[in-house]
Here is the input.
Amino acid sequence: MATGTGTKTDPWQLTTPPGTSAYSMWRDDAADPPAIVCQVGGTQLKYDARAIEDLHAMLKAHGDWLPLGGADEQKPAAPGTVEAWGRAEDNPVGGWYGLKKGLRGRFGVYMPPLLEALGLAEVTHEAKNNRMRAI
Here is the structure.
């Protein structure tokens, strides 16, 4: 379970679904658009803050488990996954939720644990092929 309140001075402390990597996230409401900052070691990724509500709404509408399918921006996302939805032209933002060119992928790796920590979703924690669903 995550700790922290989601501010830069007290970020959410999260772990990837398999439990292999720790990272932190926080809201940056001063950014344009407001962002979720994801700090993974020395790498910083940013996702549109709308992703929390939009992903939850999509999962509720889907109504069942959905594979995560995390992939880097340069690699194609497996169809029918959270990763594919996070970059699809028909999602609510019309494309990538990732905001940093070159680092827009991995949505299906880093966002699901945040939704789980916020009590919005369940995430499986297997070594591979994890899934999530709305609560």
About this structure: The chain has three helices and seven strands.
